[in-house]
Predict the structure.
Amino acid sequence: MNDTSKQEHGDFLARWAHTVSLRAPWIVLAAVVLSGLTLSYTVKHLRINTNTGAMFSPDLQFRQDFDRYQSLFPQFKE
């Protein structure tokens, strides 16, 4: 990087910092609103299923074999 390029980057960052400092309350408000929206989306759409039986499709052959085994020997289910 040459000196002119460094100066331009420095000038841009100085203008950016000045602009942000003038609008700090709005930026904080926007960050809080976006955080709330992100939290709302996360709560509604992301789930953790700890049921190991639901991890694999029931159409898989070994699942069908296991289900058949459990129906033939119900005393061994637990």
About this structure: The longest helix spans residues 24-45. The chain is about 70% helix and 0% strand. The mean pLDDT is 90.
